[in-house]
Amino acid sequence: MEGVAVAALRSVMLRVRQAAERSGRRPELVRVVAVSKTKPGSLIREAYDAGNRCFGENYVQEIVDKAPQLPEDIEWHFIGHLQSNKAKTLLSKSGVEPSNCVELAKHVKLRCPNLEFSGLMTIGMPNYTSTPENFRTLSNCRAEVCQALRMAEEQCELSMGMSGDFEQAIEMGSTNVRIGSTIFGPREYPKKQPN
């Protein structure tokens, strides 16, 4: 019998394919990052066994704890905010306004030899009321960055879209969607013990 996470993953993959086809894009050019925050490694393994290879976490410690227990060919994505005391374990950036995206991309490309600029990411509206304009803004940023860096737009990833708005994001050009609760269910946080 197929697990709930596997059935949900298959449903997400179907919806990704349909959204890509609606926008005239090839579905295999959209990466699904299954965000497994607060979920056990066993659920990640189920999704892995069903064919998914990209997983995301919001906390450094989650990757540090889970990665050694899972297959080495998993492509891990860190999608959370990074505290400076964790930077040696993992690198990240919390973001900039759209008007500063070219400046940041140039800085990474020209002054950070140990980093590779590979794309842009945004998070839609918190209540999933994103409109095409929300995603169009990042798409426009990509065009500006690519022109400034003299790189083809196909070389610059667009990571936008989550459980509630990923189909719209794909239709607007997303190459990475971050799907958590739709695949793995709602987050589970440990209950705090009373003092």
From TrEMBL:
Domain Alanine racemase N-terminal: 88-186
Residue positions, PTM N6-(pyridoxal phosphate)lysine: K37
InterPro entries given in the database record: Ala_racemase_N, PLP-binding_barrel, PyrdxlP_homeostasis
Keyword Iron belongs to the record: no
Coiled coil spans: none
Molecular function via GO: pyridoxal phosphate binding
Record keywords, A-Z: Pyridoxal phosphate
Cofactor needs: pyridoxal 5'-phosphate
Family: Belongs to the pyridoxal phosphate-binding protein YggS/PROSC family.
Record-given protein name: Pyridoxal phosphate homeostasis protein-like isoform X2
